[in-house]
Every structure is written in C-alpha cells, then in structure tokens.
Amino acid sequence: MKPESLSRPLEQQRGISLLGLIVGVALLGVLGLIGAQVVPAVLEFRAVQKAVVAAAKEGSGTAIGIQQDFDKRAAVEDIRSITGRDLVIERSGGKARVSFAYEKRIGLFGPASLMLDFKGSSDSR
Which ranges constitute the DSSP H helices of 59-96? Predict the structure, then answer.
C-alpha cells in the first residue's frame, strides 16, 4: 500500500519552487542590505535628538553656549551629519527651544538612492 502523499498527482502537491526560493532569498538579501545602511542613520538621529535635549537643558543659556555644548556631545557620540551651527535656537519665556532638520542620502545602486529626512527639537522625545 502506497502512502497517500506519493500517490497524489503533481498538480495537487504544495510547496515552494526553486525559482520562488531564489527570488525570495534575493529579496530578503536586498532588504537586509538596505536595512544595514538605514539602521546606523536612525541610530545617529537618536543620538542627535538626545544631544539636542541635553544641550538645551545644560547649555550655558546662550545660543553659542548651546552650540558648543552640542558640538562637545557630538564629538563623543560620533555625530557627523549635523553640527552646532545647524541648530535653530529660539527663546520663549526664558527657556531655549532647540530644533534641527537634516537629510541623509544613502546610495543604493547606480543612480538610485534613498533619502531620509530627519527633524526634531528639544521639546520632542
């Protein structure tokens, strides 16, 4: 007596073909490569956000003091996308509000690239 799976016609069998497996692995590989380049940019954004919040709280109160405090933190955190001169510092009620915005371009292949647009302020966490 034959097992039921062996006696089933080929058109009724289920599974993934070799071509489907190759395409699936290729797509996962491309997504992995893109993710490997995006994750450091997002981690740097988090470091920028943290440094901006700390500089706004602990800066000397002047715009130059906040910029210098941010630059010191950026050197420690290895932040290269933005400097203290790129910060927008506003005063309201004796409290400084520091905001920033920058773009990060990641080359994918040939003329294709991925642009990430980062924005934040000392108010948002």
Answer: 63-77
Nearest to 68 by CA among 56, 50, 80, 77: 56
Predicted TM-score (pTM) of the model is 0.77
pLDDT value, residue 103: 95
Per DSSP, the three-state class of 23 is: helix
Distances (CA, A) of 44 to 23, 35, 60, 87: 32, 14, 24, 16
**DSSP, res 124:** -
Output b/e per residue, 14-49; b: 16+ Cβ within 10 A. eeeeeeeeeeeeeeeeeeeeeeeeeeeeeebbebbb
